[in-house]
Design goal:
It is an enzyme of class 2 (transferase). It catalyses: CMP + ATP = CDP + ADP; dCMP + ATP = dCDP + ADP. It holds the Pfam family Cytidylate_kin. It comes from Sabulicella glaciei. The chain has about 210 residues and is α/β, with parallel strands linked by helices. It has a single domain, classed as P-loop containing nucleotide triphosphate hydrolases (Rossmann fold). Helix content is about 55%, strand content about 10%. It contains nine helices and five strands. The chain has a five-stranded parallel β-sheet, with helices on both faces. α2 crosses α3, α2 packs across α4 and α7 packs across α8. The longest helix is centred in the last third of the chain and has 19 residues.
């Protein structure tokens, strides 16, 4: 089984995808970490994440251990990940890795184009979203918990800019797959979101049987 979990930042898709993978005994891949790691490599080299040559070279040199770094979160990394993700050569370099991961024995993958590009044939596709203000509030709390100094207004503005960039890019824009099941987590905690998603998956599986 392939379960594609797509959606914007801080909608809760990562927490949900990890919980689903554990419950269903499936491997889990946070594909956003791949792009964050590429962006981090570019920044470490002193290059511009929007530079196709630098970003593609970083993607081709990516190692599995790059995704385990502890410095892949934060405003600079968020922006770098969004910029490298808009480059076709970067997406092509990482696409095969993602597909191999899921094809081995199924998987739960979360990202922004799992249901539209990576696994368009996935039987279960979830698009997880939430109101922009609530998403900004969640991300702001995460940042404060990591000791990062930022205002809620600044976080909301940065997320709005990233949403616009991700939705407008020519390659794999952030949009729900046509057959994706929508899950709005604005008023749901992690447990309620998990139970709602599990109900959607169970219903979808019965219809597909």
């Amino acid at each position: 089984m392939i379960i594609a979990v797509d959606g914007p930042a801080a909608a809760g898709k990562g927490t949900l995808a990890r919980r689903l993978a554990q419950h269903l005994d499936l491997p889990y891949l946070d594909t956003g970490l791949l792009y964050r790691a590429v962006g981090r490599r570019v920044l470490d080299a002193g290059a511009d994440p929007a530079d196709p040559a630098a970003a593609e070279a970083a993607a081709q040199a990516l190692m599995p251990e790059d995704t385990a770094r502890g410095d892949l979160r934060g405003p600079a990394q968020d922006e770098a990940a969004s910029k490298v993700a808009a480059i076709p050569g970067v997406r092509a370099a990482l696409l095969e890795f993602q597909r191999r991961f899921g094809q081995e024995r199924g998987a739960v993958l979360d990202g922004r184009d799992i249901g539209t590009v990576v696994f368009p044939e996935a039987k279960v596709k979830l698009f997880v979203t939430a109101h922009p203000r609530e998403r900004a509030r969640r991300r702001h709390l995460e940042m404060l918990g990591r000791g990062q100094d930022a205002t809620l207004e600044a976080v909301e503005a940065e997320m709005a800019a990233r949403d616009a960039r991700d939705a407008a890019r020519d390659v794999a824009p952030l949009v729900p797959a046509r057959d994706a099941l929508l899950l709005d987590t604005t008023d749901l905690d992690a447990e309620a979101a998990f139970r709602r998603a599990l109900a959607l998956i169970t219903g979808k599986s019965k219809l597909s049987a």
